Structures are given as structure tokens and as C-alpha cells.
Amino acid sequence: MTNPLVETVPLIEAVDVSRRFSRKLDYAEKIANLFGAGLEEKTVHAVDEVNLAVYPGEVVGLVGESGCGKSTLGRVMAGIMPASGGEVRWKGRPLTSLQGDDKRAMRLSAQMIFQDPMSTLNPRKRVIDLIGEAPKVHGIVKGREMRDYVATLAERVGLDPSYLDRFPHQFSGGQRQRIGIARALAVKPKLLVCDESVAALDVSIQAQILNLFMDLKREFGLTYLFISHDLGVVKHICDRVVVMYLGRVVESATPDDLFDNPKHPYTQALIRELPSVTDRRRVFTPIKGEIPSPLHPPPGCHFHPRCPMAFDRCRVERPVLKENAAGHVSACHLNDLAAHQATHATAEPVI
Amino acid sequence: MTPVLEVKNLSTHFMTRRGVLKAVDDVSFTVGQREIVGLVGESGSGKSITGFSILGLVDPPGRVVSGQILFNGEDLLTKSPTAMRAIRGKRIAMIFQDPMMTLNPVLSVATQMIETVQAHDRVSRAEARARSRDALGLVGIPSPEERLDSYPHQFSGGMRQRVAIAIALLHRPDLIIADEPTTALDVTIQSQILFEIKRLAGEFGMALIWISHDLGVVAALADRIMVMYAGRIVEAGQVDGVLTAPRHPYTSGLLSAVPAAVPRGEPLRPIPGFAPSPLSRPSGCAFRDRCARATDVCATEPMLEIAADREFRCFHPHLWSAA
Question: Do A203 and B192 lie within an 8 Å CB cutoff?
């Protein structure tokens, strides 16, 4: 999954990263097993051998429906959750090998902005401490300079600096999100992982926050991993879009490529079903079926039970990511079929 | 043909300690038979309270302070609580955003559905169960007979919303009020629900009020759209007309704030500022602080202008040359 435009070391890279969550058997179940009940631990493969590289200055969008593992992948890449398989590399070095100052520097350089600021801002702390505590602890500012530092930041993200002594509940949703952004910026990060950061906001506030993200990118040279279920938002601000389904990457391309020429049937469905004001369809052609539980993902291609194009191979063999065009990869057996037909078509006239 | 619902000058206020909160302020609209009306607005615009007011679900300190709600010609506001109970769930049904909050987690779906049937019709339990099963089948739940005995937590989000829709359909109401029913759902699941709703509304000739903040969803589903801002309907008309040639600056502001409205990578065009607190709304047009077209005259109350197929409240509406 390389981007030909940027030939450098990725800022952050996931290499075959998996994240599993399992529930241990409790005592009753262990005893039942002694009598031959044959109970097994339940394991959710939230992220299943995913490769994803984010280059400096890039905005990568990670889209998918609930339960597809996009938030988990974001957390693993931000370094706040360990991977259970594979490794995450920060500027080419595995996170697990970082020690001491290097480790701390990485932790500060990768910051997260969450969906609901109310649940990530301590309701008993004032804005000045919410934003200023981390830079003070890490020695970025001295105690008596903190107020000026926080005021500058607050102004930069569009908060009135005279509100610094207020508590989070005294702000509206959009303003709270700005506090969350200022807090992330306060430690001078290089990478911002935004997990559904604008999902809960009204459309005009959402536009304000998205503009702020883009301004900050230019001003501070930030790199973004932008996690969202909203394809419209992702299309607008990202340089590259990665689509996930049930823990796996199914397609990755530039937004124009992805929207004009989606390869994977799942991506095609997502784009087709996106309600839009400008392109009004009066009929709905939904894909059938539910998103399967990640506890019991279907074998082969995870999408095959809902896929209108599925054939026998999809039910047994996991498709691998293949390059369709420069910078456009997808994981679908149809790719081989298309390639096969293409060679066949050119071969026939010779015979 | 008489409209199913006619709301006249409805005002719903909340008497709070900090003053009177005018959640819905002098709102009038009609919903025709078999019509799908989209009610859109940002959070706090009063769209949900409008829905609650129709069903008589506003709790103190809130109160419908004035207006009329004519349902098939009868004023619901003068009805006794008993009479309202006979209408609610039977002739007007509601679907909420989060079915996990409206379904009882400790009762099976069958129990809850049978209860709903028997609340209005004197039928045997077996018949009520049969009707419940048919309703589940109707909304596209596979193997409804087995699923009847499941509990709400055993359904996925999309399936739970289908159960809520099935319950709303049990009595074939004349009107369904749906409050953000697909907001919490994924795109592919939302599309399935919209597909079913549209099909069922057509099949049973129901009228539908679809409350949403998502203009895209309303554009795809509704016949007519009403835009609410700060407790008032600021613009209403046919969906195609309102979305292609909005008259009110707020409507055009909403439309140009979505990412699809500008070329990729360019700055978005948000409406400046934020919605005023419902406790301290500006006098006159509540939108004037954020409006590029506002002048001194906007400090007075704009009257409802009624054009050919459009109603709006604005002194300086966008002018579109008739094509």
C-alpha cells in the first residue's frame, strides 16, 4: 500500500497488525469443561492482519461501518492500545522497541481526538487545566507561562480565551470539540488520529471543525488518520481513503479514484447508498443482510454472504489486496476473474 | 381531500427556572394523506418537540401553550388523556431514534407486540401473536415466528429498528411520526430501512413525518420538506424546489455547508456563528445574527410569505428567476 507521490519513510505504519479481544473462561465454565463441556474462549478479531502506512503530511481516511475495527486500528496506531499480532512502526522503528525519551516523544507526537468530547474531558476540571496540564507535565511550558500558552491555543482553535476558567458542561458540542482539539495540539503532535471527531456535530458546526482541521494541517504540518463512517466527509478532506469491513482492509485509493471507480462490491454499495442532496435518488437498492458478528466472521471473504457477485471461491479463500491501478488496491476475487477474462479476450483472436 | 394532520399556530414552551424556553414557536403546517413530510433542522431547533407535541408527549415543565392540532379534523389538544391513549399507537404511531430505549429489555418482543395489539383491539392472544408475526415479516425480519420470542438485545441495531417499525405498523395508523430513526444506523442498514419505510408507506397509504438532521435522507425519501430554525419553520415546500432553489438564507446555508457542496479539498462554507440559546433568542428573525443578508428590518418579525408552492419567513429571500 505505497503512495507513489511520497517516497519517504511512513510516519506511522501498521504491518500485519491484528488485535484480538478474548473473554477468558470463568470458573463455572472451566469446571464444566472438566466434565467435557468443551467450551472455548470467545475471541473477536477486531483487526485482522491489516497493513496501513501513513506518510508525513498525508490525510488518510479510514471508513467502514460499526464493528469493522476502524476505531481499534486507530487506537493501536496511536499507541494507546497494544497490537496482539504484527507491529506498528513509528518512523520505521517498531513501537515496542522504543524506550525512554523516544517512547515519550512518540506518545506525545501521536494524539487522538475522540467523537464525544464530553466523555473525554474531565467534567471537574477547568478548560485551562484540561488543555494546559499535559504541556506543563511534559515541560513544554513553565507553570507561569501556561495561561498565555493555553490562551494562544484556544484562540487558534476558535475558543474565546476569556472562557478558560469555565467547565466543559458550560460549552456547546462544537466548542467542546474545539477544547479537545486544543488539548491534542498542546503537546505539539505530528499525527492526529481523529476518531469520528465530527460525527456528533450539526452540519454547519461540522463544516467549521473540518475547516479548522485543514487550517491546522497547513499551519503545523500535521498528518491525519481520519476515522469516520461518513464517506462525504472523508471524500472531501482525505488524500487517500481506506475502506474496512469486519477487521480487514477491502479497498484503498485516492478519493477521486475510489468514488469514480470503486472496485470492491462493498465499496460500490457504500457509495451507492450514500444519501446525498445533490444526487437525489427516489429508489433505494440496498444490499441484503446484516453486518455479521465479528465473533463468528464468515469464512473466505468476509463480505460474501451479502455480496451480489459472490461465487464459490469467495466462500473458502480469503482474497488478498491486489493493485488494480497505481495507488488503488482492493481485496476481491473478482480482480482475478477480470484479469483472467482480459487475457482470454486478447488471447482469442490469435486462435 | 382533507389533510391527515393540520397544525395551526402551535407553541410549546418549557417553563424553566431561567425563564420561558420557546421550543416550538407559532408553527403551522399540514400533512396530506399518503404524504411523506421531512422535518429538518439542527439540534435544538424544536423538531423533536414538534413531534412530541402532536402525540401529547410533552412532559412538565413543558406545555403546549397555544394552537390547534387537527388530526382528521379533530383537535387533539382538547382530547382527554383517555381519548388520547386510544389514538396514540392506534391511529398515530411514533418511531424513535434508539429502539433500545423504547423497547423493554426484560420482555420478549412477542410480549411487547401482543401488548400493543391488545391495548387497542379485543382479540385473543393467539390472534395478537399472529398479527405480530405478520408485522415482523412485513418489515423484512427473517423467520419471524422464531424471532418473536427473542429479546431486544438479541437483535442488531438495524433489526431492532425494524421491530420498532413493526410495532408502529401493528394498527395500520394513518400517520407515523419518525424521529431520527436511521441516525444511529450504518449506511447500508439505513438504506435498507429507508427502502422498507418507503415501500410500506406506499402500500398502506400512511402519511409520514420524518424528523431528521440529514438533508440527504430527507431528499431521498420525502415529498415535502420543512426547515426549522430556533423553534420556527423558516421554509417549507416541495423537496425538489426547496433543495434546488432555497428561498431562506438558512436553508441555503445548510445546503452549502455539506462537504459535497464545494470541490474536494477547498474550504467548506459553514454558516458563521452558532444557533442561539433558546432562552435568549434575538428578537425578530432569529437567524439575523448569522445571516449575510440581514438588515435593520430583520429586527422585526418576518411574516410568513406564501408563494406558489413555497412558504418562508424572510425579508430578504433568495430570488430565483423562474426557469
Answer: no
**Cβ <8 Å between A202 and B43:** yes
Q: Which of A277, A280, A285, A293 to mutate to test the interface with B (most CBs of B within 10 A)?
A: A277
CATH number at A77 reads 3.40.50.300
Nearest CA in chain A to B155: A290
User: What is the pLDDT confidence band of residue A34, given thresholds at 50, 70 and 90?
Assistant: confident
- Integer Cα distance of B286 and B235 in angstroms: 13
The pTM score is 0.85
Model pLDDT for residues B101-139, shown as the tens digit of each residue: 889 999 999 999 999 999 999 999 999 999 999 999 888
ipTM: 0.81
Residue A79 maps to a domain: yes
Question: Domain of A74?
Answer: 12-124+167-350
How remote is the C-alpha of B299 from its chain's centroid? 29
CA distance B38 to B22: 22
Q: Which of A236, A281, A287 sits opposite B259 (nearest CB)?
A: A236
Nearest-Cα residue of chain B relative to residue A288: B192
Q: Is residue A158 part of a domain?
A: no
In a domain, A150, yes or no: no
B230-286 pLDDT, tens digit per residue, is 899 999 999 988 998 999 999 999 998 888 888 887 888 888 887 787 787 888 888
3-class SS string, chain B: CCCCEEEEEEEEEEEECCEEEEEEEEEEEEECCCCEEEEECCCCCCHHHHHHHHHCCCCCCEEEEEEEEEECCEEHHHCCHHHHHHHECCCEEEECCCHHHHCCCCCCHHHHHHHHHHHHCCCCHHHHHHHHHHHHHHCCCCCHHHHCCCCHHHCCHHHHHHHHHHHHHCCCCCEEEEECCCCCCCHHHHHHHHHHHHHHHHHHCCEEEEEECCHHHHHHHCCEEEEEECCEEEEEEEHHHHHHCCCCHHHHHHHHHCHHHCCCCCCCCCCCCCCCCCCCCCCCCCCHHHCCCCCHHHHCCCCEEEECCEEEECCCCCCCCCC
Give how many domains chain A has, as a whole number.
1
H or E element in which residue A61 lies? strand A59-63
Among A82, A61, A74, A139, smallest CA distance to A110 is for A74
